[in-house]
Amino acid sequence: MKTLAQIVIFVLCFCSINYKAQVYFNNRYDTYSSCDGTNSIDTMFNGYVSAGITCSTVSFYTFLLNSYNYNGTIKNSKAFLIPNNNFLSNYGKYIRLNNTQFLVSGSRAYKPDTTLAFLWRFNASLDSISYKEYGFPNQTNVISAHIQSGSYIYMVGYNDVLATNSDILLIKTDTAGNEIWKKKIGIPGWDESAFSIQITADSKLAICGHKGVHNTSNDGMYLMKVDTSGLMIWDKYYPSIFGAFLSVKTLSDSSCIVAGGDGLSWVSSNVYSKNVVARIDVDGNEIWKKYYGPLSNNTGFVSIIENNKGNFTIAGQRTYTNNTVSGTVYEINQNGDSIFSKEYRLLPNSQNYFRDVMQVYDKGYCFAGFLSPMNGDGGSQDIWLLKVDSNFCESNVSCGYPTGIRNISFALGVMTLYPNPAQNELIFKFENGVSEDATIAFMDILGKLVVEYPLQIKVNNEAKLNVSELPNGLYYYRINQHNAPSISGKVTIFK
Length: 495
What we know:
Elements: H1 4-20, E1 25-29, E2 37-43, E3 48-57, E4 60-68, E5 74-80, E6 86-87, E7 94-96, E8 101-111, E9 114-123, E10 128-134, E11 140-149, E12 152-160, E13 166-174, E14 179-185, E15 190-199, E16 205-213, E17 219-226, E18 232-238, E19 244-250, E20 256-267, E21 270-280, E22 286-292, E23 298-306, E24 312-319, E25 325-332, E26 338-344, E27 350-359, E28 365-373, E29 382-388, E30 406-410, E31 413-418, E32 425-430, E33 439-443, E34 449-454, E35 462-466, E36 473-481, E37 484-493
Antiparallel strand pairs: 1-29, 2-3, 3-4, 4-5, 6-8, 7-8, 8-9, 9-10, 11-12, 12-13, 13-14, 15-16, 16-17, 17-18, 19-20, 20-21, 21-22, 23-24, 24-25, 25-26, 27-28, 28-29, 30-31, 31-32, 32-35, 33-34, 33-36, 36-37
């Protein structure tokens, strides 16, 4: 018979093991057999909650809430329809009020020239508790995000008067949803919109979005800092072509990180953009601004967080020439240096969009968005949730810690391998070169040889290798050369 002490030890060990265990899933949720999607995810009530939309027709949207277990299975799903009204796909983040209630912000259209912002209160069972609306009468009032500071809630978006020009819309309420004030922030003849808001360490509000001259392509990235009364402290404008900051994250030194897309243009029916991240100090001065990924086929970074390693995890997506889309994740350090990037899909022929990312209880990451099947894969647009481990792996088969650039020391000097993960091309740079007869062999995770290529140095001690024929997966590689030690390592191929 087990003693009480043995039982206690067993229970403690079991709990510890389960808490530390990594959870993985890559799921599609066809909740109402219609066009489902979500822009946000949060951990609540021993699992996750997502807010989004579902629709019976292309132009008619219903507000949708889903709750999930930590393993990705749905616990509850509820749709909220108000007749003759259309819920927009712009909805803000959650605000946890306590262990039993939360708030979601958004917008709904009454008629073509009237849209009102809302703040909706729910309980853990996804039951509606209260609903309040805000905005200026007979105008478009769209909310993109919200945040809580103490006893107050701030919501941001844009206000548009009959499409003549738009201003940033900023609304302040108490936690009961009672409006304290609402303001328009903008310049006549210019369009300004806000997509994200954060409280700064010095108790101000950082708001990012876009700003441009009305009815022109001069639509650049925009960042502003206001006080809790809505008064402007400073603003920062980056002229571009349809550029925008889509997410802001404030830091402990009162600086902030903003992420988005710079230089959108339409060429041959494809959207091209540069992914951009900038760090701005407490006074609005640029510390650094950097671009990431290829200079085309991106749709901008949509969500940025600071992770437990002190780096930044950023979510976005990449569009390919065949119109398929992959969700993308980048990790960068405090100086903006890229550590790695990776792409994810659920279906090979599909458009996969990330809209939110968060780090969760097991130090892994949960991504939320939607996917649309293409080319005969079938089905409608559905909610897409991806849960990876702390190394951004999708299974319990170790994929190693992904790195963008990897330095490997060996007898002839230093080798630099990038990018890792790779899509179609690997680049090897050798400090002192390699022998003319060098080859590189790729093995699967069981050590079985898959393929071997010659490794020929072209210029600047670099060798470029086409790996487009290799299937997605983790590979061990070994560089063999005459009368010299071999070089080994791991690389991930992900297209």
